[in-house]
Amino acid sequence: MILNNNLKMMITAGMIVSGLATATEQPTISFTPAQKARIGEVAKEYLLMHPEVLIEVSRRLQIQQQEKQQQAMAALVLEHHDALLNDKATPTYGPKDAKVAVIEFFDYQCSVCARQAPVLKALMKANPQVRYVFKEWPIFAQRWEPSLMAAKTGLQIWLEKGADAYLTYHNALYATGHYEGRLTPSDISRAEMQAGSLKSKNDSMLEVLARTDSLAQSLGLRGTPAMIVMPTKNAVADNVTVLPGGADQASLQEAINKAAGNVKK
How many domains does the chain have? Predict the structure, then answer.
């Protein structure tokens, strides 16, 4: 890109159109009001002729904002490391000595969670060495009662029957294709039967769900699904990935590799 003389003067003076501060790197130069007005005119003319510059500025700003958000959320993950990984009332699947954990906050009534389910299923098949943590977070319970019912039943199956039965139940519910108000008590009962009927049902799971809700709020999560990929030990901000809104398999695999220390340089 060829710069005209006026634009070169702007850049020399530290008036870079990308908006990046350079005042600490270059000496301060004073301009007269007329010069400032002319610089503004030149900048406007240049941007009108090269609108792609604004697109690039917007893209870089978005990347910077995303990186800042990721760093802030990673710091919160580290702060709540134990609650994320070591709550015995939270369903998990995979080796106890796994080096990497993939954590999902989800609701069975969430349409995006339903689309995430087959992605996670494929990821689990490709990465059996990883521990998967299922944080039941029925955020739609006030709108659709089966949201709460499904979450409570899932937790009870986990505590009573273990990981295999829980995963069977979990996948069976998503296999119905019923979400956003279409999930029914009959769907939940049939999924429970596939996992093995419970001996009894009670409201003791409400405390677990309240704990998960408090954790999600503390992490700054705004909805489901939310994915966190992190090492089970020696986690630092640089090897933790937070994916609000879910992610495709490639992005999750990249996060697993980063957490495991297998990122290609």
Answer: 2
